Write a sequence for this structure.
């Protein structure tokens, strides 16, 4: 199953108030394993960057001045997305900006049924704990030492590792197809991946022929070490008595 983990950086908190997307980073995963394919782009928002937002991601007006508009690159982004589920942290925020930009350039919106929100997954798995990306990296031992400021691509790469842990860790089954559970219900692919496949036990009892060959082999041994150990234990037992 192919999934895209993505993150965005913006000029603010609300596209309805005129804020725009300035960066997007995407990581391709197949069966919960990163393929190495990524998509990353900066966009000129066509408006000044508020100082508060620049303090978060470090993207200045000067840096973004020569970057293309979202509409100039949206076809490449849409092609990279394909029809795959889209995974983000606090995904309603990223989807809101993504669909605002798509609508702004006359492209169809991304259906919300494709959204997988790792914030929701984290709250379900660890209620009452901290659920920021930094906190989840700490919880799962994900190295974030290269994350000096927020950046869409590095945050997507970190989130990809967190997502694997939230959905069962590295020991999950590799098949993400819909799975029938023991109670008769059907697991969603995002849940089915966490079902661990247990191999049936192998038969280890020796056959009569194997036992006969083993006895024949033992009978040919001269002064085997276990007979000396047995004699030693017997002597120690008598001395102790």
């Amino acid at each position: 199953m192919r999934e895209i983990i993505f993150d965005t950086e913006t000029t603010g908190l609300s596209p309805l108030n005129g804020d725009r997307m300035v960066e997007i980073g995407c990581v391709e995963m197949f069966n919960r394993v990163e393929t190495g394919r990524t998509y990353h782009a900066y966009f000129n928002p066509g408006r000044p960057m508020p100082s508060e937002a620049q303090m978060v991601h470090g993207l200045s007006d000067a840096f973004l001045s020569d970057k293309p508009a979202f509409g100039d690159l949206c076809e490449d982004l849409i092609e990279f997305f394909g029809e795959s589920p889209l995974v983000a942290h606090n995904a309603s925020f990223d989807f809101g900006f993504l669909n605002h930009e798509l609508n702004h350039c006359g492209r169809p919106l991304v259906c919300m049924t494709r959204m997988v929100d790792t914030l929701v997954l984290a709250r379900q798995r660890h209620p009452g704990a901290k659920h920021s990306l930094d906190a989840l990296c700490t919880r799962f031992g994900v190295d974030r030492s290269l994350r000096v400021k927020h950046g869409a691509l590095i945050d997507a790469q970190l989130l990809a590792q967190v997502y694997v842990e939230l959905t069962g860790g590295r020991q999950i089954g590799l098949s993400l197809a819909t799975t029938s559970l023991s109670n008769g219900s059907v697991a969603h692919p995002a849940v089915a991946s966490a079902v661990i496949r247990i191999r049936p036990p192998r038969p280890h009892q020796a056959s009569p022929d194997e036992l006969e060959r083993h006895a024949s082999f033992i009978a040919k041994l001269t002064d085997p070490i276990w007979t000396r150990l047995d004699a030693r234990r017997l002597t120690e037992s008598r001395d102790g008595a």
User: Anything to note?
Assistant: The two ends are 69 Å apart (CA to CA). The domain at 2-166 is CATH 3.30.420.10 (Nucleotidyltransferase; domain 5). The chain is about 40% helix and 15% strand. The CA atoms of residues 167 and 191 lie 7 Å apart.
